UniProtKB/TrEMBL annotation:
Keyword terms of this UniProt record: Hydrolase, Membrane, Metal-binding, Metalloprotease, Mitochondrion, Mitochondrion inner membrane, Protease
Localization (cell): Mitochondrion inner membrane
Keyword Protease: yes
Entry's EC annotation: 3.4.24.-
InterPro entries (alphabetical): Peptidase_M76_ATP23 (IPR019165)
Main localisation: mitochondrion
PANTHER family linked: MITOCHONDRIAL INNER MEMBRANE PROTEASE, MITOCHONDRIAL INNER MEMBRANE PROTEASE ATP23 HOMOLOG
Protein name, per record: Mitochondrial inner membrane protease ATP23
Entry membrane topology: Peripheral membrane protein
An MF annotation (GO) of this entry: metalloendopeptidase activity
A GO-annotated cellular component: mitochondrial inner membrane
Length: 243
């Protein structure tokens, strides 16, 4: 649950545009140029433009996020496999809501994270942090590992060792620590020799640092190290690590 779903009060959404005409056609472009140059706009008009722009952008991001989500649920081997494994666990449990696409929602997130998992609410995909469809695939796979772990082992997310173990597994199994993904994030500072394990440790440590029971980075790193061997080598439900 490293990337937990933020409270609704933390997400600030713009109001709808004053009129549909204000975000279409010539009027939109005229306002865009005025905003960029600072010419011809009063402070109130500038504030309204900023609100309209954010509204249109968020609407576009939301639509794209759901389109990507639906495509991945149909065609991504990793996502399909994980949803099938979750469905099998669901069949054995009568005390939890059944998994379906409604448990994966898109919304705006106030922080750097690209997704989050909540044991009662499901998976949140951060539409404003997703770079492309393949980034979303890794994000969904990561959160689906958390979903799987929560069903299979009834994880106590405030227990740092439980939390760290699921973070290690999610970062390792999701594909987000493949070489090209790390290179895209870190460029030439990424050392191939450190590779997959270094990426998993780093990302798991960052996630555990967000746990309210974690004191600081040193504490998070210590917890990750304590559970590393058993959790990194546990690739269930996969037969091996997906790279």
């Amino acid at each position: 649950m490293a990337d937990s779903i933020p409270p609704k009060e933390e997400i600030v959404k713009p109001n709808p545009p004053a009129s549909e005409a204000s975000v279409q056609g010539f009027n939109w472009w005229r306002r865009t140029f005025q905003y960029k140059t600072g010419l011809g706009l009063t402070p109130d008009e500038k504030a309204q433009y900023e609100n309209d722009y954010k509204y249109v952008l968020q609407r576009k991001q939301c639509q794209e996020c759901y389109e990507y989500r639906d495509w991945l649920l149909k065609y991504s081997p990793t996502v399909i496999f994980m949803t099938q494994q979750i469905a099998k666990l669901n069949d054995k449990r009568t005390d939890v809501l059944k998994f379906d696409e409604s448990k994966i929602i898109c919304d705006v997130c106030p922080e750097w994270r690209s997704g989050g998992f909540h044991p009662e609410l499901g998976i949140l995909l951060c539409q404003n942090r997703i770079r492309d469809k393949w980034h979303l695939e890794d994000t969904m796979a990561h959160e689906l590992v958390h979903y799987f772990d929560n069903l299979k082992w009834q994880v106590d997310w405030l227990n740092l060792k439980h939390h760290a173990c699921s973070e290690i597994r999610a970062s390792s199994l999701s594909g987000e620590c493949r070489f090209m993904q790390e290179f895209a994030r870190r460029g030439f500072s990424f050392k191939v020799s450190q590779g997959h394990q270094e990426c998993v440790k780093r990302r798991a440590t960052l996630s555990v640092m967000g746990n309210p029971n974690c004191k600081d980075e040193e504490h998070a790193r210590k917890i990750v190290d304590e559970v590393w061997d058993s959790c990194f080598n546990d690739t269930r439900p996969f037969e091996e690590i997906y790279r």
